[in-house]
């Protein structure tokens, strides 16, 4: 914290009220006050950080009034009519300004598999977030008559745990395992991703039907009570706000293959894991409609200010898309690795 005399502060606030652009988030005032108290060098070295850019985006969202024109509404409305049944694979929105920049960053460029949908809630699991620990499994080699231990990345599926689903969720997308009827298809569709039990996986490994790295192991679920993501009650329709897009069935295999490249999370492989997750997300694009923030207008930001290029953080050369990716990395490092200051590396 810094201190300065009240008259100086009041004069600067009065100037901001008539001349400052709210999208600057008060950073100019902070720099001015730091200069007044002889901390100009400190202020200069801290300008242009990840935190500054996030603050500017917060100011843009909450201090500037934004409206959406009828074209964008019609695109969102058409997309929201696609019904998400169990077995549907979703991906985080591909709009230029991620809806998950300022909150719920784990869903930015995420992949979510819908497990169930009823009148009360939609339940799904995120697939692209390996945790910093693996799940060990002892398997017997019948030919050699020995037991050996395998480790699979344990993925964070969400913040909730169902009482009847305290053990991890096992998923596969293998035609061979489908043919052997290992597990059950989610949603009842044979071509969907299949869910199986620990015991079924153990038998499949023992019988050499599959390798452990063909499975995704998920801990936790994501829960959306109806009304939070649904356009119409009891219809299980999502995407009303454009937060998610449906991955075409033809893209699921490519998505799955990219996810299988991820490993147990460490400080050394954090970026590689994120890159593989984004690779999987990109593979799920298909021909889905893309909602674009070009249809948003900014109003009430003060007289005499022209709209800046919307794909950049205000008055910087930093792309919002890059900032969103950085925010995802900070979430992974903070929430999955427990390293809260890893975001400092983003400024270098």
Tell how many strands the DSSP assignment holds: 13
Strand order of the largest sheet: 5-6-10-7-9-8
Summed up, the domain count is: 2
Give the averaged pLDDT, no decimals. Answer: 79
CATH topology name of the largest domain, in short, is VC0467-like
Runs in which pLDDT lies below 50 for 5 or more consecutive residues are 67-82, 229-239, 288-307
According to CATH, what is the class of the largest domain? Alpha Beta
Radius of gyration: 24 Å
Shape: elongated
Structural class label: alpha+beta
Give me the strand/helix succession: HHHHEHEEEEEEHEEHEEEHHEH
Beta-strand content bin: 15-25%
CATH architecture call of the largest domain: 3-Layer(aba) Sandwich
End-to-end separation in angstroms reads 25 Å
Residue share in helix: 25-40%
What summary fits the major beta sheet? Answer: 6 strands, mixed
Summed up, the helix count is: 10
Question: Keyphrases for this structure?
Answer:
348 residues, alpha+beta, VC0467-like, six-stranded mixed β-sheet, 10 helices, AlgH-like
Lay out the secondary structure.
Blueprint: H1 6-19, H2 27-36, H3 40-45, H4 50-63, E1 65-68, H5 70-80, E2 89-92, E3 111-117, E4 121-126, E5 130-141, E6 146-156, E7 169-172, H6 175-179, E8 184-185, E9 194-196, H7 198-206, E10 215-219, E11 222-225, E12 244-246, H8 252-259, H9 270-283, E13 296-299, H10 320-336
Parallel strand pairs: 6-10
Antiparallel strand pairs: 1-13, 2-3, 2-12, 3-4, 4-11, 5-6, 7-9, 7-10, 8-9
